Amino acid sequence: MRPTAIRRTAVAATVMSLALLTAACGSDAADKDGGDKGKTDGASSAKPAAAKALTAAELEKVSLAQGDVKGHKVSKAGPQDAVSADDVNVDKAACEVFGDALMGAKSGSPAASTQRKVISEPKKGADQDSDDLDEAFKAAFDITTTLTTLSSYEGKGAEESLANLRTAATGCASGFTLTAGGTKQKIVKLAEEQVKGGEDAVGWTVTIESEGDKTTMKLVQVRQGATVASFTALNLGAAASGDGFEMPTAVIDAQVAKLA
Predict the structure, then answer these.
(1) Which residues contact 125 (CB under 8 A, 6 or more apart)?
(2) CB neighbours of 246 closer than 8 A, spacing ≥ 6?
(3) Do residues 75 and 114 lie in contact, with contact meaning Cβ atoms separated by under 8 Å?
(4) For strand 213-224 and strand 112-120, is the pairing parallel, antiparallel, or unpaired?
(5) For residue 194, which phi and psi values (nearest 5 degrees)?
(6) 120: closest CA among 260, 230, 258, 254?
(7) How distant is the alpha carbon of residue 66 from its chain centre?
(8) Left (φ > 0), alpha (ψ -120 to 50) or beta: where does 218 sit?
(9) Cα distance between residue 260 and residue 258, in whole Å
């Protein structure tokens, strides 16, 4: 493997450990600023949320399970993955909401939340289709890992969550610095993506730079009633090669379908 690919692989592993292994899990992690962080008077809709906040047990029933997404492995995020939102820090206060969402931390004060890791299975024999070592490596590690978080909110909390994320993305489109688990990463670009699903949806391709190498992540949030489904995704092969990768559409569609 070329030195550049090795460096990018290290970057990818670091980012994956941050975004997919340091996520705040469940509803008992402490919120920043006493749980009021991210709350504003803005909302994505003028209509009040008619749906009732789902309980933890109800969220479990509509969370992804093994077999729900063809070609993917689904598992619960364990206690080792949980980290307080206080451990996610940014250099610009306006970017705090976006940084938390990118790391999988809950936004605002959800009534309950659940979390799943969804990992795509590599295509069999894909690593043997090319004589180019870099291409073979990319094919072998063409694995997208998606951290899926469901959070239910009372009142207009779900609507506010997406509204606040949009506001943060607009103010931080040119980039910011994020530190999680003691590791610093530079977010250099937020490119909005067109995503559909639920009653409201928004998404971005996020470009991250470390030691001169760049990699990308995907962040998508979909609201269905009083529940927000948040998806953070990284493809190890794409991160190592420096190329992009597709949205985890199959994962998003499967989760949204269970919420409908």
Answers:
(1) none
(2) none
(3) no
(4) unpaired
(5) -85, 115
(6) 254
(7) 19
(8) beta
(9) 6
